[in-house]
Specification:
By secondary structure, the protein is of the alpha+beta class. It contains 2 helices and 8 strands; from the N terminus they run ββαββαββββ.
Length: 158
Amino acid sequence: MSEGAEGVSEAADGVVRDQRWIRSILPHRYPMLLVDRVVELENGKRVVAIKNVTTNEPFFEGHFPGHPVMPGVLIIEAMAQAGGLMMLHELPDRADKLVLFTSIDECRFRRPVVPGDQVRLEVEVLRHRSNYCKLKGTATVDGKLVAEAVIASATVDR
């Protein structure tokens, strides 16, 4: 990585992979933006992203008081957002598009995610056709599998 003109880290391919870059691609905003950084990106093939889980996440107040656990559906949503970054970033008209779930299959949760964890989201393309994409996602913490799923989505006009 090298420092860009504005002090923003850039990969060798020139893609800025910090929060500014992520917000320029995804329409999600706090508290629903669940990707903090992209660490690897192979266009149309694979993406690796990071979600830093902090104690002040709004969902921890009610899930569960005194025993905070990140909701599994939000782990799957984070995988989907990582996949969306990979699929949308090359579209010139991405501001006019949304990526919506069409199915979630083979979803398994292996262990809880708690405050202080750093979730590594690895998403690979299984199938891609014009506006349809099927992805395999895994989430790990400290190298241990916490969740996995096959996610299908459609890209639609806003």
